[in-house]
Amino acid sequence: MNRIDRITKMEKNLDASAEAIAELSAALDKYEAARKAWKELSDYYGSNRWMSDFEADEAGKLPKDLKRGVLSEDTVYDLITDNRELVSRMLEIARDAVLNNLI
Length: 103
What we know:
Blueprint: H1 3-33, H2 35-44, H3 48-58, H4 73-99
């Protein structure tokens, strides 16, 4: 690879890396900001309050137009699983970066 091609390729790598880092940083800011809401949701799911709300929904005591995905056992459980997998993935990426001097 000649010098011009190498510099051109590295410039593309620089641009792609800068864009990815900025986007990941913004996504992590948003994720971090949502952690309080996440903890609240996680504590609610499976609690006595959740069970009472779930039973009220099953009994038809909630308004028909009320959004209630939170009362779906699968929706919240799937989100908990997705979050656990995401955190594990972040740890693996961070571990790889440290071990391979990519930081």
